[in-house]
Amino acid sequence: MIGRLNHVAIAVPDLTAAARTYRDALGAEVGEPADLPGHGVRVVFVTLPNTKVELLEPLGDDSPVAAFLARNPAGGIHHLCYEVEDIRAARDRLLAAGARVLGDGEPRTGAHGRPVLFLHPKDFAGTLVELEEA
Q1: Number of separate domains in the chain
Q2: What CATH number has the domain bearing residue 31?
Q3: pTM for the full model?
Q4: Is 32 a catalytic residue?
Q5: Burial status of residue 121 (CB atoms within 10 A of its CB: 0-12, 13-18, 19 or more)
Q6: Alpha-carbon distance 13 to 5, whole Å?
Q7: pLDDT 10s digit of each residue in the chain, 134 long?
Q8: Which entry of 54, 57, 83, 130 is annotated as an active-site residue?
Q9: Residue 82, domain extent
């Protein structure tokens, strides 16, 4: 069911500064910022040869990333995103196995324009997991 690692998401207090660090210090290819109001975040993708890093900052105080940064002011790894072929089939299989899908359980459009779901971190070794339909 699980496919390739699509990206590692890192919550940051300052998206511009974090993007600059990846570009200037690490020499990475850094995309343009994009607002995702439905998810409450502003994101930048860093392209690597084998995956991506998603830098994200909150789009307001009610953003889940704002709560994360309140607990981790310097930022940190927020979630891992794995690709799946069929997101609804993956959801149904996970629910049958006892995993918890966050939100209403229906896929939403993610940063890449594809359906995504998030899985409860308590069910995955303390890690928030995002599934993205490939």
Answers
A1: 1
A2: 3.10.180.10
A3: 0.94
A4: no
A5: middle
A6: 24
A7: 899 999 999 999 999 999 999 999 999 999 999 999 999 999 999 999 999 999 999 999 999 999 999 999 999 999 999 999 999 999 999 999 999 999 999 999 999 999 999 999 999 999 999 999 99
A8: 130
A9: 5-133
